[in-house]
Design a protein that fits this description.
Layout (H helix, E strand, L loop, with lengths): L2 H10 L5 E6 L5 H16 L3 E6 L17 E2 L4 H10 L2 E5 L11 H6 L3 E6 L10 E4 L6 H11 L8 H14 L10 H12 L4 H9 L4 H13 L1 E3 L4 E6 L1 H6 L11 H5 L6 E8 L4 E8 L5 H8 L3 E2 L3 E6 L3 H11 L4 H6 L1
Parallel strand pairs: 1-2, 1-4, 2-3, 4-5, 5-6, 8-9
Antiparallel strand pairs: 7-8, 9-10, 10-12, 11-12
Helix pairs in contact: 2-5, 2-6, 5-6, 6-7, 6-8
The protein binds guanosine-5'-monophosphate and manganese (II) ion.
Length: about 350
Amino acid sequence: MNKQDISSIKQLLSSKKKIVIVPHKNPDGDAIGSSLGLYHYLTKGQHQVQVIVPNDYPSFLKWIPGSDTILKHDSQTDTCDDLLKDADIIFTLDFNALHRTGNMEKVLAESKAMKIMIDHHQAPDDYAKYTYSDVSMSSTCEMVFNFIDLLGDADIIDSDIATSLYVGIMTDTGSFRFRSTTSKTHTIIAKLIEKGADNTEIHNNVYDSNSYKRLQLLGCALTNLKVVPESRTAYITLSQEELQKYDYKKGDTEGVVNYGLSLDGVVLAAIFIEDRNEGIIKISLRSKGNFSVNEMSRAHFEGGGHINAAGGKSHLSLEKTVEKFISILPSYNKALNDE
Ligand code: 5GP
Ligand code: MN
């Protein structure tokens, strides 16, 4: 996004517009935080703004200011489709290709609205009139901050915008510890705290609101943890039965994959989660150093993401998916052991 683009967008936003903001399916902290941060910012400009998520999101994000205004496409499809068809501008946040919105793909592709992409994933598709894509960014929330700043409006950031953006930077950086965290990230975080983001309260709301069952599910996941030492790899499985036993709710498995990566010497961690409703195994991959799980996911698991964090899926059974994973590891042994 160059200076010319910014002045065109500034011009565009100088009159009242109907705006829809859409993040990816199974939205996480960065998807919801960036959507609500941008929502609060645009609402200040008198626009008519609506956030539409493809499907539900974890309850540990439902306290964020404005979350009660979000519409869910899977349960409010007609209302959402009308808004999408009627919109002047659609912002697409935290994803690189329209299929990442699941069933919203078609209505988004067909909508005549001007599309603006803000995203930090690899390989952005070319569907937007304006594309702000930067894989070096910690989070889409950091990019939304930059976007507001580029438009010359950093001064009007209030506590709702600051709180929303803080959430996504915190969750996508693993609380400011991943390599994508830069001094610039911390400078932005400092500004968000100055503008009213309560860092302790935000952290508590997101990470310290566990149910007893969720901790027991974590216990089950850790019991299932296996290590493949020659590939410096750890993986976890969770079957549908195990999820049911511990009363699984959306978001309960968030972050569990990182326990594998916390093992000394491990550079690749995976979690395989059975979803019989969708008929898939949902896969999350994490790595350390230069080993690209984005590449691994694209090549073998119909997914993608970033170098050190990617996701994908498999249509095989849980057991067969794990077998496949183990069978491809040797071809990565050199890269894994070079880390
Ligand atoms: P997670 O493992 O937390 O679901 O996702 C890790 C990263 O990979 C996130 O940036 C997410 O957007 C991306 N990702 C997760 N699942 C998929 C997928 O199925 N396809 C693609 N392209 N990216 C994914
Ligand atoms: Mn993100």
